[in-house]
Protein backbone atom coordinates (compact mmCIF):
# COMPACT_ATOMS: atom_id res chain seq x y z
CA UNK A 1 0.00 0.00 0.00
CA UNK A 2 1.19 3.47 -0.78
CA UNK A 3 2.00 5.95 1.97
CA UNK A 4 -0.35 8.64 0.62
CA UNK A 5 -3.42 6.42 0.96
CA UNK A 6 -5.69 6.24 3.98
CA UNK A 7 -4.78 3.10 5.95
CA UNK A 8 -7.71 2.95 8.41
CA UNK A 9 -11.18 1.49 7.92
CA UNK A 10 -13.65 4.14 6.85
CA UNK A 11 -16.03 5.30 9.63
CA UNK A 12 -19.84 5.36 9.24
CA UNK A 13 -19.72 9.16 9.06
CA UNK A 14 -17.90 8.91 5.71
CA UNK A 15 -20.95 7.26 4.16
CA UNK A 16 -23.42 9.51 5.96
CA UNK A 17 -21.67 12.47 4.35
CA UNK A 18 -21.77 10.82 0.92
CA UNK A 19 -25.52 10.20 1.06
CA UNK A 20 -26.23 13.63 2.50
CA UNK A 21 -24.79 15.12 -0.69
CA UNK A 22 -26.37 12.63 -3.10
CA UNK A 23 -29.00 9.91 -2.57
CA UNK A 24 -27.22 7.76 -5.19
CA UNK A 25 -23.56 8.81 -4.87
CA UNK A 26 -22.20 5.98 -7.04
CA UNK A 27 -24.99 6.32 -9.61
CA UNK A 28 -26.07 2.69 -9.34
CA UNK A 29 -29.30 3.47 -11.18
CA UNK A 30 -27.86 5.32 -14.16
CA UNK A 31 -24.29 4.24 -15.00
CA UNK A 32 -23.79 1.54 -17.64
CA UNK A 33 -20.72 0.40 -15.68
CA UNK A 34 -22.98 -0.43 -12.73
CA UNK A 35 -25.66 -2.11 -14.85
CA UNK A 36 -23.05 -4.21 -16.63
CA UNK A 37 -21.34 -5.13 -13.36
CA UNK A 38 -24.64 -6.34 -11.90
CA UNK A 39 -25.25 -8.48 -14.97
CA UNK A 40 -21.75 -9.96 -14.73
CA UNK A 41 -22.22 -10.67 -11.03
CA UNK A 42 -25.52 -12.47 -11.54
CA UNK A 43 -24.10 -14.42 -14.50
CA UNK A 44 -21.13 -15.53 -12.39
CA UNK A 45 -23.31 -17.20 -9.74
CA UNK A 46 -22.92 -20.96 -10.29
CA UNK A 47 -26.40 -21.93 -9.04
CA UNK A 48 -29.73 -20.84 -10.51
CA UNK A 49 -31.29 -20.16 -7.11
CA UNK A 50 -30.24 -19.71 -3.49
CA UNK A 51 -32.09 -20.14 -0.23
CA UNK A 52 -30.52 -17.54 2.07
CA UNK A 53 -28.27 -14.73 0.78
CA UNK A 54 -26.31 -12.06 2.64
CA UNK A 55 -25.33 -8.76 1.03
CA UNK A 56 -23.29 -6.39 3.22
CA UNK A 57 -23.21 -2.80 2.02
CA UNK A 58 -26.39 -2.87 -0.06
CA UNK A 59 -26.55 0.93 -0.48
CA UNK A 60 -29.87 1.90 -2.09
CA UNK A 61 -30.77 -1.70 -2.93
CA UNK A 62 -30.22 -1.91 -6.69
CA UNK A 63 -28.12 -5.10 -6.57
CA UNK A 64 -30.37 -6.38 -3.78
CA UNK A 65 -33.36 -6.18 -6.11
CA UNK A 66 -31.49 -8.20 -8.73
CA UNK A 67 -30.35 -10.81 -6.19
CA UNK A 68 -33.93 -11.24 -5.00
CA UNK A 69 -34.82 -12.69 -8.41
CA UNK A 70 -32.47 -15.60 -7.66
CA UNK A 71 -32.85 -15.96 -3.88
CA UNK A 72 -35.68 -17.02 -1.57
CA UNK A 73 -34.38 -14.57 1.02
CA UNK A 74 -31.83 -11.75 0.96
CA UNK A 75 -30.54 -10.13 4.14
CA UNK A 76 -29.14 -6.81 2.93
CA UNK A 77 -27.36 -4.34 5.18
CA UNK A 78 -25.83 -0.91 5.15
CA UNK A 79 -24.25 1.43 7.66
CA UNK A 80 -25.95 4.58 6.33
CA UNK A 81 -29.53 5.25 7.44
CA UNK A 82 -30.22 7.35 4.35
CA UNK A 83 -29.16 4.50 2.06
CA UNK A 84 -31.38 2.06 3.93
CA UNK A 85 -34.33 4.43 3.67
CA UNK A 86 -33.89 4.59 -0.10
CA UNK A 87 -33.52 0.80 -0.24
CA UNK A 88 -36.74 0.31 1.74
CA UNK A 89 -38.62 2.48 -0.72
CA UNK A 90 -37.13 0.69 -3.71
CA UNK A 91 -37.72 -2.79 -2.30
CA UNK A 92 -41.09 -2.25 -0.63
CA UNK A 93 -42.84 -4.65 -3.01
CA UNK A 94 -39.99 -7.15 -3.38
CA UNK A 95 -40.63 -10.40 -1.52
CA UNK A 96 -38.01 -12.07 0.63
CA UNK A 97 -35.80 -9.05 1.35
CA UNK A 98 -34.85 -8.01 4.89
CA UNK A 99 -32.94 -4.75 5.41
CA UNK A 100 -30.82 -4.13 8.48
CA UNK A 101 -28.39 -1.49 9.71
CA UNK A 102 -25.06 -3.29 9.96
CA UNK A 103 -21.47 -2.67 8.93
CA UNK A 104 -18.95 -5.16 7.58
CA UNK A 105 -16.72 -5.56 10.61
CA UNK A 106 -19.62 -5.79 13.10
CA UNK A 107 -20.59 -9.08 14.75
CA UNK A 108 -22.14 -11.25 12.05
CA UNK A 109 -25.80 -12.39 12.19
CA UNK A 110 -26.31 -15.68 14.00
CA UNK A 111 -27.23 -17.71 10.94
CA UNK A 112 -25.66 -19.40 7.94
CA UNK A 113 -25.95 -18.43 4.30
CA UNK A 114 -25.64 -20.29 1.02
CA UNK A 115 -24.72 -17.07 -0.82
CA UNK A 116 -22.61 -14.15 0.41
CA UNK A 117 -21.98 -11.20 -1.90
CA UNK A 118 -19.13 -8.84 -0.95
CA UNK A 119 -19.59 -6.19 -3.62
CA UNK A 120 -17.72 -2.88 -3.53
CA UNK A 121 -17.29 -2.87 0.25
CA UNK A 122 -14.10 -4.80 1.01
CA UNK A 123 -11.76 -1.90 0.31
CA UNK A 124 -13.45 0.25 2.95
CA UNK A 125 -11.76 -1.93 5.58
CA UNK A 126 -8.15 -1.96 6.65
CA UNK A 127 -6.15 -5.14 6.15
CA UNK A 128 -6.77 -6.60 9.62
CA UNK A 129 -10.51 -5.89 9.51
CA UNK A 130 -10.79 -7.34 6.01
CA UNK A 131 -9.05 -10.57 7.00
CA UNK A 132 -11.43 -10.89 9.94
CA UNK A 133 -14.43 -10.25 7.67
CA UNK A 134 -13.27 -12.93 5.21
CA UNK A 135 -12.87 -15.44 8.03
CA UNK A 136 -16.31 -14.47 9.35
CA UNK A 137 -17.80 -15.06 5.91
CA UNK A 138 -16.47 -18.62 5.89
CA UNK A 139 -17.70 -19.20 9.45
CA UNK A 140 -21.22 -18.04 8.55
CA UNK A 141 -21.50 -19.87 5.24
CA UNK A 142 -22.93 -23.31 4.70
CA UNK A 143 -20.59 -25.96 3.34
CA UNK A 144 -20.69 -25.59 -0.44
CA UNK A 145 -21.96 -22.01 -0.26
CA UNK A 146 -21.09 -19.44 -2.91
CA UNK A 147 -19.08 -16.38 -1.81
CA UNK A 148 -18.63 -13.65 -4.43
CA UNK A 149 -16.26 -10.68 -4.28
CA UNK A 150 -16.81 -7.81 -6.73
CA UNK A 151 -14.67 -4.64 -6.71
CA UNK A 152 -13.57 -1.58 -8.66
CA UNK A 153 -9.91 -1.97 -9.59
CA UNK A 154 -8.74 1.63 -9.81
CA UNK A 155 -7.17 3.08 -6.62
CA UNK A 156 -9.13 5.59 -4.54
CA UNK A 157 -7.13 7.72 -2.10
CA UNK A 158 -9.82 7.58 0.59
CA UNK A 159 -9.91 3.77 0.63
CA UNK A 160 -7.40 1.79 2.72
CA UNK A 161 -7.18 -0.98 0.08
CA UNK A 162 -7.58 -1.46 -3.66
CA UNK A 163 -9.92 -3.96 -5.24
CA UNK A 164 -7.02 -6.18 -6.29
CA UNK A 165 -5.68 -6.17 -2.72
CA UNK A 166 -9.10 -7.16 -1.40
CA UNK A 167 -9.26 -10.10 -3.79
CA UNK A 168 -5.74 -11.19 -2.87
CA UNK A 169 -6.87 -11.40 0.76
CA UNK A 170 -9.93 -13.38 -0.27
CA UNK A 171 -7.73 -15.86 -2.16
CA UNK A 172 -5.57 -16.30 0.95
CA UNK A 173 -8.56 -17.08 3.19
CA UNK A 174 -8.83 -20.66 4.36
CA UNK A 175 -12.06 -22.35 3.32
CA UNK A 176 -12.60 -20.21 0.20
CA UNK A 177 -11.96 -22.38 -2.85
CA UNK A 178 -11.72 -20.47 -6.17
CA UNK A 179 -14.33 -21.40 -8.76
CA UNK A 180 -14.33 -18.61 -11.34
CA UNK A 181 -12.93 -15.15 -12.10
CA UNK A 182 -13.74 -12.29 -14.41
CA UNK A 183 -11.57 -9.18 -14.67
CA UNK A 184 -11.00 -6.24 -16.95
CA UNK A 185 -9.34 -2.87 -16.44
CA UNK A 186 -12.19 -1.63 -14.26
CA UNK A 187 -13.71 -4.51 -12.29
CA UNK A 188 -12.70 -7.83 -10.79
CA UNK A 189 -15.12 -10.61 -9.83
CA UNK A 190 -14.03 -13.71 -7.93
CA UNK A 191 -16.39 -16.59 -7.16
CA UNK A 192 -15.50 -19.00 -4.37
CA UNK A 193 -17.05 -22.14 -2.96
CA UNK A 194 -16.84 -22.74 0.78
CA UNK A 195 -15.18 -26.08 1.44
CA UNK A 196 -12.06 -27.87 0.29
CA UNK A 197 -10.74 -29.60 -2.80
CA UNK A 198 -11.75 -28.95 -6.39
CA UNK A 199 -15.19 -27.31 -6.73
CA UNK A 200 -17.72 -28.72 -9.18
CA UNK A 201 -18.16 -26.69 -12.36
CA UNK A 202 -21.59 -25.60 -13.58
CA UNK A 203 -21.43 -28.03 -16.50
CA UNK A 204 -20.44 -30.95 -14.25
CA UNK A 205 -23.16 -30.09 -11.75
CA UNK A 206 -25.66 -30.14 -14.62
CA UNK A 207 -24.45 -33.49 -15.96
CA UNK A 208 -23.08 -32.08 -19.20
CA UNK A 209 -19.60 -33.56 -18.69
Short description:
The protein has 209 residues and is α/β, with parallel strands linked by helices. 31% of the residues lie in helices and 26% in strands. The chain contains seven helices and seven strands.
List keywords for this structure.
7 helices; seven-stranded mixed sheet; methyltransferase; S-adenosylmethionine-dependent methyltransferase activity; alpha/beta; 209 residues; single chain; 26% strand; 7 strands; Rossmann fold
Describe the protein's topology.
Layout: H1 12-21, H2 32-44, E1 50-55, H3 62-67, E2 71-78, H4 81-90, E3 97-101, E4 113-119, H5 127-139, E5 141-152, H6 163-171, E6 176-183, E7 187-194, H7 202-205
Parallel strand pairs: 1-2, 1-4, 2-3, 4-5
Antiparallel strand pairs: 5-7, 6-7
What does this structure look like?
The protein is of the alpha/beta class. The protein has one domain: Rossmann fold (3-Layer(aba) Sandwich), CATH 3.40.50.150. The protein has 7 helices and 7 strands. Strands 3-2-1-4-5-7-6 form a 7-stranded mixed beta sheet, with helices on both faces. A hairpin with a 3-residue loop joins strand 6 (176-183) and strand 7. This is Methyltransferase domain-containing protein. One of its GO terms (molecular function) is S-adenosylmethionine-dependent methyltransferase activity. It comes from Antrihabitans stalagmiti. Pfam families: NodS (PF05401). Keywords: Methyltransferase, Transferase.
